[in-house]
Write the structure tokens for this entry.
Amino acid sequence: MAPEEIRVYENNMVLQHRLKDAGGLGATQALQRQLEASRTAEETAGLAAGSLTGLSLVGTRAFSAAAARHELLKSRWLAYEVDPQLQFDFPAMSDTAFPATAAMIRAMRTADQAKSEGNTANYQSAVAAFCETLTVAEAAAGVP
């Protein structure tokens, strides 16, 4: 549940059952878990504080998983940029004049932009597109 949904649930239960103390509902603990997950995901993804506070706990975890996958893909691509042996063996992976590499770079930038927006679904699809274009670029460059 998103933080707003948790608060609405808590308010509805207090009104419906005429509770004086809502502490036994577990809403406070649920909000704490959600906020902690958001803070952790923001730190891991390098986002500004408060960027993911509107997401549910499941959405926050999905965003974190997409961010981890995104970082792995960027590391995989960066190896072609910084390793002299890979540069020599697969020059097309660093050549933006090569159509598959150019498409991969565009997909990587799209994933970077989607990450900063904080929308989990858009970010996941952008990372998936980046993964696909990186694989295509590697195949086109002759990477085994």
User: Anything to note?
Assistant: The chain has a mean pLDDT of 84. The chain has one domain: 3-141. The CA atoms of residues 80 and 87 lie 6 Å apart. Helices lie at 3-17, 27-45, 57-82, 84-89, 99-117, 120-141.
